Each structure stands twice: as structure tokens, then as C-alpha cells.
């Protein structure tokens, strides 16, 4: 059975450098998920995603515009996803998205 968090999500991070669109893919397995985040700066695998009910948490090592590890948390409500991206010393930015058609 697919979890409510599974699927492809058309997301945008509201950052000081403007909107950063990306596609988040989530494939859950119990309390974990694997997937990727793909955008203008390339694609990053998500090897360590966690699922807690309708909330997902993951981290990614980004290379640009500055090398840093970002921690992310988002909650799913129907076909919408909303949460935060925490980019260390660079701050915390909101992320929102909608489920893409299968």
C-alpha cells in the first residue's frame, strides 16, 4: 500500500536568492523513504528519509550556491506539502508543493 507521502511533488523553496523550484520524489517503506530532489542545480539522492505519519524528514548535501548540508521537514495534507528547509548558517526557508499527477 502506498503511503500518503509517496509520489512526485512539484516544490518551491522561498530563498533569499529567489524561488528555487525542484521535484521531490518519495517512495516510502515503513518509517523510512528513499527518493531524490531534482532542480536547476541537478539531482540529489535522498538515502536517509524518515516518515512520521504525514511528515517526512530528510537531509541533503548541496554543492551550490554554497556547499552545505540542508535539513528538511515537510508535512503532507491531501495533495499539498509544506515545511521548512534548514540551511545551517544561511537560515530557514519555507518549502511548499503540490502532488504531480501519476
Question: How would you characterize this protein structure?
Answer:
The protein has 102 residues and is mainly β. It is built from no helices and 8 strands. It has strands at residues 7-15, 18-29, 32-39, 42-52, 55-62, 68-77, 80-86, 92-99. Strands 1-2-3-4-5-6-7-8 form an 8-stranded antiparallel barrel. It is globular, with a radius of gyration of 13 Å. The relative contact order is 0.23.
Any idea what the shape is? globular
Strand tally, please? Answer: 8
Q: What number is the mean pLDDT?
A: 91
Instruction: List SSEs in N-to-C order.
Output: EEEEEEEE
In what range is the share of β-strand residues? over 45%
Terminal Cα span? 15 Å
The helix content, as a percent range, equals: under 10%
* C-alpha-based Rg, rounded: 13 Å
Structure characteristics:
mainly beta; single chain
Q: What is the gist of this entry?
A:
This protein is mostly beta strands. It has strands at about 5-15, 20-30, 30-40, 40-50, 55-60, 70-75, 80-85, 90-100. It has an 8-stranded antiparallel beta barrel.
